[in-house]
Queue: 4 jobs
Job 1
Amino acid sequence: MRYSIWSLAKHALSGHRRWPQVWRSPEPRSSYDVVIVGGGGHGLATAYYLAKVHGIRNVAVLEKGWLGGGNSGRNTQVTRSNYFHRVSTEFFDYSLRLYESLGRELNFNVMLSQHGVLNTAHSRHDLETMRRWANAIRINGVDSRLLTVDEVKQLVPAIRVDGSLPVLGGFIQPRGGISRHDAVNWAYARAANALGVDIIQNCAVQGFERSGGKVVAVQTSQGRIAAGSYCLNVAGHSTQLAELAGFRLPLMSMALQAMVSEPVKPMLDVTLFAPALKIYISQTDRGEVLIGGSADIYNSFGQRGSFAVTREVLAAIVELLPSFSRLKLMRQWGGVVDISPDTSPIMGASPLQNLYLNCGWGTGGYKAIPGGGATMAYTIANGTPHPLITAFGLDRFARAALVDEGAAAGVAH
Ligand SMILES: Cc1cc2nc3c(=O)[nH]c(=O)nc-3n(C[C@H](O)[C@H](O)[C@H](O)COP(=O)(O)OP(=O)(O)OC[C@H]3O[C@@H](n4cnc5c(N)ncnc54)[C@H](O)[C@@H]3O)c2cc1C
């Protein structure tokens, strides 16, 4: 059914008790054309574009827990394409453009709020790095503008520009912003389900049956499932699944945390990054102030962030935005992110012929969900990488052809 003002009014008459189920919960079949492991945003989006664009509908998404229970439902929702290298900008801007029409395409309000992503500079060195970064983004054809300290103050009236880490200026990507992560997961799940995709929750992949350099079937907590092709979209658990499949990935898993305050009246109409302070902050359409920082400094599969990072993030927020010290925190949580040596994703072929990889998103794969889904669906359907992702193949590590965004832009996020 289509969601609209009319369907809302109609269901209001019955007290909203008769909304149909949004997706089915089918029993898994013994075989599919494509099996996608991981029901986060990337897995669901890949399934949707396989069915919608490539007509491959005999697809199962196997999720060990619940949809969006991984990083796609735990992130801070930042959506932007202000990357340094051309290959990154082209890929992430493609994803951002898909986000811009996603609500309409999937008939689901994903609450995209393009209020701008602002980075503040706190030293002359910062300012120089940002000038280089902002210019590279513009040369790559994406919107980006340097800001004076007065312009920063105008955008964020609560900011302290003369504190112990003074603000010297910054730059903004006006089309950047946030959207609602749960809605993105649910929208793709609903649309994929409508096209015939089987979404199977509580179904953990526990092993791979291999023969002649190919995967023949996966063993799951709900039995054996065979397929023509497989795609791994399991974020922080990618190394564990790869090990089960018989190869290693150059990834480290670490906890990344976030927190939200109680909802308050609108007071921050931009997503603010202060890379030197390792913090970023935005206000959601529901009024909560959403705060993020950097990952823990040690490897872990624990889905929670360390207290040391919580304390450092909050201290920096209070230093930069003193009035925010009066906010009450409502929740703090963590996710396990998969960080590659060059902080760029790993997409495309794996050492096994019919097993594809979509991982290594680290702290920044939410913004990539539409782009990742669309390009991976193309890659699986055609058996060759989509032109936008050829630079992100696993083989780049053997060729020393890294796409080092962290080093280029001078920040880790
Ligand atoms: C706190 C935090 C803040 C973040 N902020 C941002 C941000 O602002 N912007 C941004 O772009 N990115 C951000 N990210 C990163 C982003 O959330 C991820 O890169 C992205 O969600 C990855 O999506 P995914 O679908 O690949 O993985 P996930 O959403 O993690 O999905 C993987 C799924 O695989 C399932 N799975 C694991 N093992 C198995 C198995 N054996 N069998 C079956 N299923 C399995 C998991 O249960 C999980 O649901 C953040 C991440 C965190 C943790």
Note: The pocket of flavin-adenine dinucleotide is lined by residues 37-43, 62-65, 69-72, 74-78, 204-205, 233-235, 237, 241, 256-258, 292, 335, 337, 361, 363-367 (CB under 6 Å).
Job 2
Amino acid sequence: MLNPNLPNDLDAFWMPFTDNRGFKAAPRVFARARDMHYYTPEGRAVLDGTGGLWCVNAGHTRAPIVAAIKASAEEIDFAPQFQLGHPAAFSLATALAQITPAGLDRVFFTNSGSEAVDTALKIALAYQRAIGQGARTRLIGRARAYHGVNFGGISVGGIVGNRKQFLTLPGVDHLPHTYDRAEQAFSRGRPAWGAHLADALEDLVNLHGAETIAAVIVEPLSGSTGVLPPPVGYLERLREITRKHGILLIFDEVITGFGRCGAAFGAQAFGVTPDIMCVAKGLTNGAVPMGAAISAGFVQDAIIDAAAGGIVDFAHGYTYSGHPLAAAAGLATLRVYEEEGLFAKANALAPVWEDAFHALADVPGVVDIRSFGLVVGVELTPSGEGVGMRGRAVFRKAFDDGLLVRAAADTLCLSPPLIASAAQIGEMADKLKAAILAVG
Ligand SMILES: Cc1ncc(COP(=O)(O)O)c(C=O)c1O
């Protein structure tokens, strides 16, 4: 239960993406974390199958990251970044540019993935305007996409539940999603079927006119809607069509970045380079909020070149863009990734991961298992109580039995810290299986 030494009014905190009434009737709370585990206030260990929320790629409370945060906090609290600067932000941008695909080396810092997405969309619009293509204002997203919660992100996003309470931007259209169970179920890695779905972009070009389309945004691998790896050839086809029509391609790498797919970014794992990339989460190992929109040089050059001397070139930025604490955490995190070879380790562990979870194919109720790198989605048939109820019941049972998983409707998603051992991967698969069987 909650720490009795702290005043805990459960009603005061309006929790994000939470069934507040349900949670407050039966709270689940973590008090501390170390390496592969969370600990409840009573001291019960919970194996972290989800890297927190797809973000703790180096494991919890790693000493070098904690030390860097402490040192930064003692040295400087805040540094304005509008017309001023702080060394750590420049250092982190430089370090990031060394691991991004060649040509993607202009880093605009934000505080979250949602802000990275809206920033990338604004960069795309500013770029088109800068090169004299101001009529290109249309943005193309994709069904079953999650791009955060800001207005741009929900507009290009493809999750009805995240859109219907609000309003969305005009001038947005969507590609179809890439999932078809009949064609793809139990594929290991990228499904062989589905490259042709990228051709839907040609249909949108025919419908709207290429000269009205600024950018297409996709997650290289959709995470939040249940782990949907891209079909073989799909991203290549999208790249070809966008290039042909002068449309910018944006990859939302908020989940796929920093080793999740067995390379620094999904772009490298899948061999396709976008024009802009959104990152967050693993950028600081989740320790301090931070995101970034990382552009190709030609994109930023065009925007800067179009601005008159002495005028702000891109009228966008956050008070906390490049915050010293976040930049220090990011630098320390990138160092841990490099020193421990965690991206290569994730790649080496991927077959172990795949085997462990695909062994659940015969468990009653499992209708698909989708995996790539160190991420997996195990999909169950919905129970008679409605879509998502079985997934949530398995999440709760696994939590009670010491494993953290994430339920996306009836798909149980796992994306552990990249430091996971083969034995811990086996434990995750065993515990998930037991929870599925227990829930029935
Ligand atoms: C692909 C993708 N984009 C954007 C976001 C939003 O990131 P944040 O929650 O940091 O705003 C997420 C979060 O899960 C995500 O998975």
Note: Residues 112-114, 117, 146-148, 219, 223-224, 252, 254-255, 280 surround pyridoxal-5'-phosphate (CB under 6 Å).
Job 3
Amino acid sequence: MGQVINFKGETKMDNCQRCGSKRVLGYSAKADDRQSWILGEADGEGYLPGDFNIGAGDYIEFDFCMDCGQIQGQFPLPETEFEETNKEKAAE
Ligand SMILES: [Zn+2]
């Protein structure tokens, strides 16, 4: 079997930040502006906001532990622009 290099140029994922498992899946998809999401009572569609920590713009990209379910990254995320925007709408 040849060496696999993913879209980020990585040849191997780090172990899971939560449980240490090696079964971390690096996932990527190009979805252009055909994306949608729900957060609390608000929903959105279009290009993926970068501050959701699952990619940005055209691309959905995240590293996911297949043992414990943890998406790799820094948590908790700070308030997103989407939340900030929809908070202002709700207050009107
Ligand atoms: Zn894990």
Note: The pocket of zinc ion is lined by residues 16, 18-19, 21, 65, 67-68, 70 (CB under 6 Å).
Job 4
Amino acid sequence: MSPSSPVLRSLSDRVRQVLLFELGGLVLITPPFVWLSGVPLLESLGLLAIIAFIAAVWNGAYNTAFDWVEGRLTGRTADRRPWPLRVGHALGFESGLLLISLPVIMWWTGMDWLTALIADIGLALSYVAYAFVFNLAYDRAFPIAAPAPDPAPRIETDADLSALNTLGLRARAARLAVIERADQVAALTARADWAGTPRLVLGGGSNVVLDGDFPGWVLRVAIPGREQVGEDDTAVLVRAGGGENWHDFVRWTLEQGWGGLENLSLIPGTVGAAPIQNIGAYGLELAERFDHLEAVSLEDGRVRRFDAADCRFGYRDSVFKREEAGRWLIASVTFRLPRVWRPVTGYAELAQELARRGPPEPTPLEVSDAVIDIRRRKLPDPAELGNAGSFFKNPVVDADTLAALRARPPDLPAYPQPGGRSKLAAGWLIEHAGWKGRDLGPVGSYERQALVLVNRGGATGADVRRLAEAIRADVAERFGVELEVEPQIVSVPPSGRP
Ligand SMILES: Cc1cc2nc3c(=O)[nH]c(=O)nc-3n(C[C@H](O)[C@H](O)[C@H](O)COP(=O)(O)OP(=O)(O)OC[C@H]3O[C@@H](n4cnc5c(N)ncnc54)[C@H](O)[C@@H]3O)c2cc1C
């Protein structure tokens, strides 16, 4: 429970607490008061009843205020109050009551103020002891039940999505639900307006092209949480909620002393989206640190575990982009972070940056810092210039295709892959097709990295599609290589599925 909304007793519970307290007080404290003060029984009963009434009003006000302040400052409920605070609570109550009841005792009994004060203090001390025991017994007998979490997610209709995609494309969603817990998906699937309606799971919106308004449900994943969930001889197992910011999570693992994800620093987006395209950078892919994930079915809300083999990871690819596309919401991902850490420095640019920066044996945090610096130099910050990172995958070609290509541009970079294949640099092909830094309408190819398409302002999904098609056509014509778009193009025919 958040400290800003303390859990209080219900009104009926509070009334019961006050009535029981006052009744018990009358029964237990009147006889000794008669005996010690010399005030006759009936008069004593009358006085104590009046004080009981005053105390009842004071009790309700004081306890409510005390519980509220305690809950706000500590996030704790009154039934979990520590012992020292219980003493302070009872003393505070009685001091307040003492001040209020002194004039009443003088008026009712005719005592002078000093005698009345002594009687009042006697009463107060008795009530301090009584309040302490009573509240302890009451809290044990009637603990405060935490309210059940609301299974329904927050829902907005006709929601603006332009701030929820890093390209900054203008688009609206018929309904936007913010998913903060996995069980909220089941609450949605049970709704009458769920079945047959298009749906889109959205993380940070850094790998989607919103091509027009979305006529169905957009589920924005905001499930939090990061924790170590196990360890063995070779690795520490760390789980993160699907809504966690990817980069913040990576830095957090490094600060805990768990290396392994540093090469993937500063990739925008969420943890839940990371397995979708098996994010990769600087010689490392998510698959190499993956243990398993938990996903919620968008059909019926059931939860399923996917191990690495189930995910069938490939280069910027997984089962969630193919057979299982659009069927799951990834609620959490668990990573295996190696106990014995070695830097992954096979990527030339990173190796050079680390050599330039100094220590011959960098720590995981130092590798992360180097990656962050390289990325900041090369890639536009989506907060300043709308983009979705690399817009095309690096094409992988066989030896014959490469030989035919090499005959044309001799300086074409090609990176050997398993099976005699080679990965080409899509950015190089786009640049040499004449697109680097060139615009088409409000979108263009970024001047420092041709592979990144940017929104110069006010672009729509159709503008992005048009530019992407023009680039693809030119690269195909000039090099005979088909470029494949990396982000998900979200376009929904009026009655269909995306
Ligand atoms: C400047 C920049 C640099 C980038 N650099 C890299 C890079 O180096 N390497 C790389 O691999 N990628 C890179 N990307 C792409 C992007 O950051 C990643 O693909 C990232 O994982 C997308 O996360 P997201 O939360 O923004 O996903 P979104 O864009 O919101 O969604 C992407 C896809 O995943 C689905 N999805 C999202 N969350 C979930 C979930 N919880 N459950 C099920 N499906 C979900 C969506 O439906 C969509 O199909 C870059 C992007 C930008 C803008």
Note: The mean pLDDT is 91.
